[in-house]
Design a protein that fits this description.
Helix content: 40-55%
Bound molecules: 2'-deoxyadenosine-5'-diphosphate, magnesium ion
Number of helices: 8
Number of domains: 1
Largest sheet: 4 strands, antiparallel
Distance between the termini: 13 Å
CATH architecture: 2-Layer Sandwich
Order of helices and strands: EHHEHHEHHEHH
Number of strands: 4
Oligomer: single chain
Structural class: alpha+beta
CATH superfamily: Nucleoside diphosphate kinase-like domain
Strand content: 15-25%
């Protein structure tokens, strides 16, 4: 089943919105398969955001993601990557649709609460970064047949 890597970013942690963010994804029907509370260091931040190295916002992005503990989660389900990104909303919260996490809870692009992988390939790359040496659990919910056809 397709997997995606979700991060509850430092602003959501600071604002007490961790379970609001995770709960919306869980209620969508995605199955939680991995969960960690961790402090991201500079090396991990640069590895995760390697595609943005050299962009003007890169230093601020690294400072932000390393500024407080975060929660890393693996969610799985049919089309998990696209489903999570749809529930998150557009990168810029003022452009994100109402009803999405960013559209309901955020205002600034550098404080957009949540990360979600942008492709299944990137999901596997990012899960390797955040769950190296930590379990991702393969399980079935009794309710799966009411969520997955
Ligand atoms: P997303 O997080 O929606 O996948 P992205 O991968 O393009 O967006 O960028 C990663 C993060 O970098 C994004 O969540 C916020 C920040 N960012 C992206 N573009 C930015 C910009 N133009 N100015 C400031 N921060 C930006
Ligand atoms: Mg991205």
């Amino acid at each position: 089943m397709e997997r995606t890597l979700i991060l509850v970013k430092p602003d959501a942690m600071q604002r007490g919105l961790a379970f609001e963010v995770l709960g919306r994804l869980e209620r969508r029907g995605l199955r939680l398969a991995g969960l960690r509370l961790l402090q991201v260091d500079e090396a991990m931040a640069k590895r995760h955001y390697a595609e943005h190295e050299g962009k003007p916002f890169f230093a601020g992005l690294v400072d932000y993601i390393t500024s407080a503990p975060i929660i890393a989660a693996v969610f799985e389900g049919t089309g998990a990557v696209e489903a999570a990104r749809q529930t998150m909303g557009a990168t810029k919260p003022t452009a994100a649709a109402p009803g999405t996490i960013r559209g309901d809870l955020g205002l600034e692009i550098g404080r957009n609460l949540v990360h979600g992988s942008d492709s299944p390939q990137n999901a596997e790359r990012e899960i390797a970064i955040f769950f190296e040496g930590h379990p991702v659990i393969d399980w079935r919910r009794d309710t799966d047949r009411w969520v997955f056809e």
